[in-house]
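Archive transcription. Copying these from loose printouts into the bound notebook so they stop getting lost. Printout 1 of 2:
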Amino acid sequence: MKIPQNSSFSGKIAGDSFVLTAIFSLAVIVATFFVSNANLTFETKTAVFLAIAVSYVFLCAAFYFWQREKSADLKAEQVLSAFNEEIEAKLSALEEANEFFGASLKFSDMFRLVASRIEEIVPFSACVLFLRGDGDNILQVKYAVGENSRKFMDFKSDTNKGLAVKAFLSGKLQFDTTLLNEKRVFSPEMLKKFKTAAAVPLANRGEIFGVMVLYGAAENDFEGNAETLLTAVGERVAPLFASSFALEQSVSNALTDSLTNLPNERGFFLVLENQLAQSIRYRDERPLTILAMDVRNFAEINQTHGHATGDRLLAFAAALIKKQLRQMDVLTRASGDEFLAILPTANEKISTEVTERIRRAFVLTPFRLSERETINLAINFGTATFWRDGETANQLLKTALLRKGQDKSAERSKVIWFPKEFVN
């Protein structure tokens, strides 16, 4: 990048040089005049003249180095200003996109846009975003683009070491020219295409909330002006990431149950509609079952032992149920003690196996009411399978709740339950 010449810059240096040179020279002339006319011996005058000469040389040398340092500082400011102007021009489109798209611009989309702009300024082979995890000094991979991005995205472990953590704790730009820090976190397979890395801390309102790590394929990828560029980039992209992440978090909170950290009923319908679309498209090859559950006698337990115990019981039940589900299954909390699960690709046989695992888990794992008292909980179940029991979300949920009511009935053997449409 060509740096434009600045006349005020050279003029300021020249002006300072002229003033200081004139002052030094005048001081030497005056000192020499007074010494030469003073009533001193020849030896004394010689010693004084020699001291003046040495002092003059010393001051000239000091002035030279001061001037060179000042010139370098001013040039650095000018270079940084030019860099900032280029970065502002390239990233202004991102700010406009953020304002234009508003709530529709997801954090993942924002990250890809930012990464593409950064690559134009500081070329890289991969860009990985780390955000703060559950611990104070723990980071998690949030998004990645470029080489091995899929492997980075599949890396689910927390990390409290590595270059990203080093930048997070120091709040300063960090470089790893040998990947020594990264090899303590990631496998050789993930890093084999990289030679160097640079970590850029991201701050919002003075607090570090994440780190962006760039990986280069060559050892000299982040040399030269890269430090200045990355510093400026970090200052400008951090607000974009922070606002987009806050928006995503607010949406996530609107779809999450605060007690169990499970998706709520609204989240259930969003996921179910998406899964139903897949099952409708592949009707015979992709079954789908939903599972409705609640805790038997929860109202009595909650009333007898208090709401705090009831809340602990619900959190306990949510965690235990979730452990018995498959990785692809989605567990949600509807209301009260009612849980709804979506079982993609699950037919009647698979859903029966899942419910039996859950029953067995509650038999083997008692809930601790207090330090001395435990209780074995029982779960009521109701299932509904796509196509056989309904083809819409409301039809499936209605059938699953009806069957859960059958399971909940104290006199199931004496009562026969039919869907209302079958009665008519």
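Printout 2 of 2:
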Amino acid sequence: MCIVGMYPARPSRGYCGLFTTETGRTMTLAVRLLERSGRGDLAATVKYRYSQTARKQQLTNGCQHCDALQGNFPVQEDAFARVVSAGGPDGLDTLLVADCPVLEWQAVVHDGGRSVIVV
């Protein structure tokens, strides 16, 4: 199981973006929301690991059993395929519905390095 993105529970009319956890800012917020909501078990699988592809340490999903890095590219490719096949974010499992402070959400929305899947 991997944390792949965030999407508003009640999006406004015309909203069409699933913010993916490929960026550190989005992943950090996802982990913070999981921890605040008592889902430390899910947050614990995310930590800094060295990516040979990116040639740097980055915040990544890890295997719940062996802690191996779950690469952003294959994780996001799978997420994209699920979103496309379902016609939206319902193709993904919802791990948490949480209140998110507006300023924290806006920091993700307006992050220049963001990755978004149009849904």
